[in-house]
Automatic annotation (TrEMBL):
This is Probable aminotransferase TAT2. The lineage of its organism: Eukaryota, Viridiplantae, Streptophyta, Embryophyta, Tracheophyta. Gene3D superfamilies: Aspartate Aminotransferase, domain 1 (3.90.1150.10), Type I PLP-dependent aspartate aminotransferase-like (Major domain) (3.40.640.10). GO terms for biological process: L-tyrosine catabolic process. Residues 40-403 form the Aminotransferase class I/classII large domain. The modification N6-(pyridoxal phosphate)lysine is found at K249. Its cofactor is pyridoxal 5'-phosphate.
Length: 416
């Protein structure tokens, strides 16, 4: 009976964890209460660039998938770690930015980056384990940890320093049961891109603490500011790194669910027989992406035109500029720095400028109801009284949304 109660309590903890999709669905329901049907809904809440015509995917990738499907060679099961040719292509793709070569044995194919996150937490889980996660961050990590009974310890990102990791906080939080330090770069939800030197400091800190680094690079290469994208795997010789990524963002195909879990470890920590066997056995439990999509990966990765990537970067730079310019005209919202990468940014609410708004959740629900604009309350990503705005949107929709937010501010502005 007692074990059943423990299980129930654990389940309650997991199901009470906030999810972005859960809050966004509630916000959409709030829009339904809006009496003004003339306002179309503008969602700046979900990091799905396919929802806009401004970010088309490459037709070449579609053709590669179609050819793989029509070949009739890929209707059966793939090996549980993934098709060998897909693993080899991903290893080569990632190695191009590293001072050492990855092999196909370092790469495991997952159903998007979300499954890669769950795999990383599940493989590290053990009694008493804790994991260090960024705040603000991506709440799927907390959800995975709750289901795996891994304690979460949050370290802060520093808005005044380009959302850098608070390394002093990490030193204070870690102990002998810390199994990993997770970072997200380029940053979701902050839009930051870490410098080479900051990433090196993170690697050296993790080494000193005797833990590994989980590097969430789902937005890898989507950097358009002053800092170029540097993969954490560059520092794999200092500390073992698990790199998580996918085709989703850079190739604008999140619905294809093609991700990867990669061990960056030239010193061989992950190549110990027991570790390799544990990873392989865990992947035997999982169903990977559709075999024909895996089969298309080598062509997608090696033959996509650089013009496609440059256009995506230029569009993100343009829409992020629009977002920042328009936000400067809304007194109740401020942001510490312009985005450098990814597809989202964090902005702070100045509640003292508003008369009848209690917090970020209240702000977002009233904005949805009155203006049919969806943005994510910062509470959903761990930062109360902030908001996350996704700028991967059509410029006209982005301007319209910002205009409505300005009207919303004027309606709720505190009287002097």
């Amino acid at each position: 009976m007692e074990s059943g109660i423990v299980t129930m309590n654990h389940e309650c903890k997991a199901t009470s964890t906030i999810t972005i999709k859960g809050i966004l669905s509630l916000l959409m329901e709030s829009v339904g209460e809006n009496k003004d049907d003339s306002k179309r809904v503008i969602s700046l809440g979900m990091g799905d660039p396919t929802l806009t015509t401004c970010f088309p995917n490459t037709k070449f990738a579609e053709q590669a998938v179609a050819d793989a499907l029509h070949s009739a060679k890929f209707h059966g099961y793939a090996p549980t770690p993934g098709l060998p040719q897909a693993r080899t292509a991903i290893a080569k793709y990632l190695s191009d930015d590293l001072p050492y070569e990855l092999s196909s044995d370092d790469v495991f194919i997952t159903c998007g980056c979300t499954q890669a996150i769950d795999v990383s937490v599940a493989l590290l889980a053990r009694p008493g384990a804790n994991i260090l996660l960024p705040r603000p961050g991506f709440p799927i990590y907390e959800l995975c940890a709750a289901f795996r009974q891994v304690e979460v310890r949050h370290y802060d990102l520093l808005p005044g320093k380009g959302w850098e990791v608070d390394l002093d906080a990490i030193e204070a939080l870690a102990d002998q049961n810390t199994v990993a330090l997770a970072i997200i770069n380029p940053g979701n939800p902050c839009g930051n891109v870490y410098t080479y030197h900051h990433l090196e400091k993170i690697a050296k800190t993790a080494k000193r603490l005797g833990t590994i680094v989980i590097a969430d690079e789902v937005y890898g290469h989507l950097a358009f500011g002053d800092n170029p994208f540097v993969p954490m795997g560059v520092f794999g010789s200092i500390v073992p790194v698990i790199t998580l990524g996918s085709l989703s963002k850079r190739w604008i195909v999140p619905g294809w669910r093609l991700g990867w879990f990669v061990t960056n470890d030239p010193s061989g920590t992950f190549r110990k027989p027991k570790v390799v066997e544990r990873i392989k056995k865990y992947f035997d439990l999982l169903g990977g992406p559709a075999t024909f999509i895996q089969a298309a990966v080598p062509r997608i990765i090696t033959q996509t035109d650089e013009v496609f990537f440059r256009k995506t970067i230029d569009n993100l730079r343009h829409t992020s500029d629009i977002c920042c310019q328009e936000l400067e005209d809304i007194p109740c919202i401020s942001f510490p720095s312009k985005p450098q990468g990814s597809m989202a940014m964090m902005a702070e609410l100045k509640l003292s400028h508003l008369d009848d708004i209690s917090d970020d959740i209240d702000f977002c629900f009233k904005l949805a109801k009155e203006e049919s604009v969806i943005i994510l309350p910062g509470t959903a990503v761990g930062l109360k009284d902030w908001i996350r705005i996704t700028f991967a949107a059509d410029p006209s929709s982005l301007r319209d949304a910002m205009k409505r937010m300005k009207f919303f501010y004027q309606r709720h502005a505190r009287k002097q």
